[in-house]
UniProtKB/TrEMBL annotation:
Protein name: Outer membrane protein assembly factor BamA
Gene that encodes it: bamA
Classification lineage: Bacteria, Pseudomonadati, Verrucomicrobiota, Verrucomicrobiia, Verrucomicrobiales
Keyword Signal annotated: yes
Major site of localization recorded for this protein: membrane
Cited NCBIfam families: OM_YaeT
Length: 779
């Protein structure tokens, strides 16, 4: 076998390094290997029969030949195919044990011998650390999670370096610097890794100060930046840490706030760290504000298709007022969106700001319109488990539509809102068809399933432990992983001193491939906390259809079939309570409407939620329960200065029927409405003072919350409500309370603490204050 004679030896595939006339490709590109044939056409090579397969090592042999043979699909007796060698290279590289592969061929016994020349990865002999004084070697080894004997991989070394940096930052060493070096260990086929650590100084933020600021007060600038002072909950919230990258972002945020107020030349010239003690520093942002600039003129040039009068009336930035970088950026986007929403995806808008006089600027928007485009193909990539149709149904553009860049952004937002992906890009690409642009959708999938185990305590149902299994990207027919179909699955079980619940729920949000959700739930509930005189057990299920009407509203049609048992009646219970004992079969149909514009569910600052529901049981639906009712709910949030949030809440509910059972009657009181009273304790009662519920309830609440320290808000509130015995009767005893509370937004879950003091109450309720709380832990 003489390499000087190309007719005797041919190089077919090579990865990651150049050898003579062989072409280099990287391991990362091994999915499309480059084929190089010397002396023979590819077709001639592929016509030959494989007579032998050999493995040769370049460098130390750190992987057994037998293991490599198990990764090779080419075998004697086969007709040679380059596709098979490509697959073999992929398999070996993806195993993580092989660094480089070349495939050679030569003539052998009337056929072709295929030779895999393999360079294997070095093994790890040892991991060492230099420069660490705060953390010992053992703790760092546990952090990096790379061990002697493993194969060395560049990505894992980079990840280990980042883990060391993160660990130091958590300890307050924000200026830590970590590098690493890989060296031969002296043992054939093994290398040693040394991490070099420059720890820097430790410093948590005690106080944040500003110098040179006259336009903004200290608290206003503190609200702008992300770096925070160390608080008493810093061990949970992580406040007070110094991140050099975050400081750069804080500088940009401060300068942006000034530019939005007309201070065009404002800048942060320095961020000084003043040591307070061994662990704390004060941060001082030094600011040069400069002068306020007024806009004297605004022009738009380059318009051929549209006229300035179609666009400029909606501008936020106007003449005669201070320059605002935020408004100018919004107007630039407005022009781009105006073109982009009409098919001009390539339109470009450049902003030119000129100083035309002392403290005066002019703004020029220079537009390059481009040509109108239409949607060609829609290509989807990155989805390993999520089905293509689950992604496509969230896209608001179809092939043949005008290419609307606003709809591209809407499509991306809709995909992100599914919660299936950590990142989504939706962008136009070059099409092979003139006048068209293809759309490339690339997604990075994330975990959508979770198992959580927790324990909670509240003033309503005491101590509760539970386990929840959820999958938001479920596929009922997708055996064996059951993921990727875009369905929502939830299994939940809770057990405590006052309750035992189990439920199983499934929802298909695109029933029959339409924007129509079909869902259902099966449940068992043993509720011991509703009354001191009886227990309530529920077993059943429901089916529902939900149809979105607008972006913020929907209609829901729901059917429920359940068996309700009133049981374990106390010996001293009244005749009214005793009359409720027994089992009931309830067949119920309901129709509901929801309008929800809240900006956040966790901490709502703006928006409102309105819901209305009407329902009926019995009659043509069958069952033992024959009643009907409706409920109206409203919530309104207003965001005030200094992050004060004002909210109003109201509810009206009525139930009617010849003999409304106690489990369908209405109650008020407790942590969710009248907080100065015990749970369900407001309303009609029997002769023993035990709540028996009413058929009309009306409730209202006003609340103001305000920030105290990080993750903690104070609250003051006023609640008022009435529960009447008969339907459409608002003449019951009025009950009201005032109170104060705390709202803690913790990583382990929300905690609400309220103390309500009754102002008005009926004869069965005392005027003592009530402490209400809801708390949950996850681990």
């Amino acid at each position: 076998m003489n390499p000087l004679f190309p007719s005797r030896r041919r190089t077919l595939v090579t990865t990651r390094r150049v050898v003579a006339s062989m072409l280099l490709v990287t391991a990362a590109a091994v999915t499309s290997p480059v084929i190089v044939s010397t002396g023979f056409a590819q077709e001639q090579i592929e016509e030959q029969k494989v007579t032998a397969v050999d493995i040769r090592f370049q460098g130390p042999e750190t992987v057994a030949k037998e293991r490599l043979r198990g990764m090779i699909g080419v075998a004697p007796g086969q007709t040679f195919a380059i596709d098979r060698t490509e697959e073999d290279i992929r398999t070996m590289i993806e195993s993580g044990e092989v660094e480089n592969v070349r495939v050679l061929t030569d003539d052998f016994q009337g056929g072709l011998r295929v030779i895999y020349v393999v360079e294997t990865r070095s093994g790890l002999e040892s991991v060492d650390f230099v420069g660490n004084t705060v953390l010992d070697n053992e703790k760092l080894r546990k952090q990096v999670e790379i061990n002697a004997g493993e194969k060395l991989r560049d990505a894992e070394l980079v990840e280990a370096k980042e883990k060391i940096v993160d660990l130091y930052i958590k300890r307050g060493y924000s200026d830590v610097s970590v590098t690493y070096r890989v060296e031969p260990s002296g043992r054939d086929g093994f290398d040693s890794v040394t991490f070099f650590i420059e720890e820097g100084g430790k410093g948590f933020v005690r106080k944040i100060q500003f110098e040179g600021n006259t336009a903004f007060k200290r608290h206003e600038l503190r609200d702008v930046i992300e770096t925070t002072e160390k608080g008493w909950l810093s061990f949970v919230s992580g406040s007070g840490k110094i991140d050099k990258f975050q400081l750069q972002e804080d500088i940009r945020l401060i300068e942006g706030a000034y530019q939005d107020a007309g201070y065009l030349r404002a800048r942060v010239v320095d961020v000084e760290r003043v040591p307070v003690d061994d662990e704390k520093v004060d941060l001082i942002f030094k600011i040069e504000e400069g002068d306020v600039y007024t806009v004297s003129d605004i022009k738009v040039e380059g318009l051929r298709i549209f006229q300035p009068g179609e666009i400029t009336p909606d501008f936020l930035q106007t003449t005669g007022v201070p320059y605002s970088a935020k408004n100018v950026a919004a107007d630039q986007k407005l022009i781009g969106d105006y073109y982009g929403s009409r098919g001009y995806a390539d339109a470009n808008v450049e902003v030119i700001v000129r100083e035309v006089a002392p403290q005066e600027v002019s703004i020029l928007y220079s537009v390059t319109e481009g040509e109108i485009s239409y949607v060609g193909r829609v290509d989807i990539s990155g989805n390993v488990k999520t089905k293509d149709k689950v992604i496509r149904r969230e896209l608001t553009l179809l092939p043949g539509d005008e290419l609307n860049t606003v709809e591209l952004a809407v499509s991306r937002a809709r995909l992100m809102n599914t919660g299936y992906f950590s990142n989504v890009t939706v962008q136009p690409t070059v099409s092979s068809e003139e006048g068209f642009r293809d759309i490339s959708v690339n997604v990075d999938e994330q975990n959508t399933g979770s198992v959580s185990v927790g324990v909670g305590i509240s003033s309503i149902d005491a101590i509760v432990g539970g386990i929840t299994l959820s999958q938001t990207n479920f596929d009922l027919l997708g055996w064996p992983n059951f993921t990727g179909g875009g369905q929502r699955f939830l299994m939940d079980a809770r057990i405590g001193t006052e309750r035992f619940d189990m439920s199983l729920a499934l929802e298909e949000p695109y029933f029959l491939d339409r924007r129509l959700a079909l869902g259902g739930e099966a449940y068992f509930r043993d509720l011991l906390y509703l009354s001191d005189d009886y227990d309530q057990r529920e077993f059943g299920g429901n089916l529902y259809l939900r149809k979105p009407i607008t972006e913020f509203s929907s209609l829901k049609l729901e059917y429920t079939l359940q068996q309700v048992e009133i049981r374990d009646i106390d010996n001293n219970a009244s005749d009214i309570i005793r009359a409720e004992e027994g089992e009931f079969l309830q067949s119920r149909l309901g129709l509901g409407y929801i309008l929800d514009t809240r900006d956040s569910i966790q901490l709502t600052r703006r928006g409102h939620k309105i819901s209305a529901q009407v329902y009926g049981s019995g009659n043509f639906l069958g069952g033992d329960v024959d009643d009907w009712g409706f409920q109206l709910d409203g919530l309104k949030f207003v965001h005030l200065p200094y992050d004060i949030i004002f909210s109003l809440q109201g509810q009206l509910a009525v139930v009617d029927g010849d003999d409304v059972p106690i489990f369908d009657r209405l109650f008020l009181g407790g942590a969710r409405n009248l907080r100065g009273f015990d749970y369900r304790d407001v309303g009609p009662k029997d002769e023993n003072g035990e709540p028996i519920g009413g058929q009309t309830s009306l409730f209202g609440s006003a609340e103001v919350t305000f920030p105290l320290i990080e993750s903690v808000r104070g609250a003051v509130f006023y609640d008022i409500g009435v529960v009447s015995e008969d339907s459409f009767d608002f003449g019951g005893d009025l009950n009201s309370n005032v109170g104060v509370g705390l709202r803690l937004n913790l990583p382990i879950g929300p905690l609400a603490l309220d103390f309500g003091i009754p102002i008005q109450s009926d004869e069965f309720n005392d005027s003592n204050g009530k402490f209400q709380f809801n708390m949950g832990y996850k681990f």
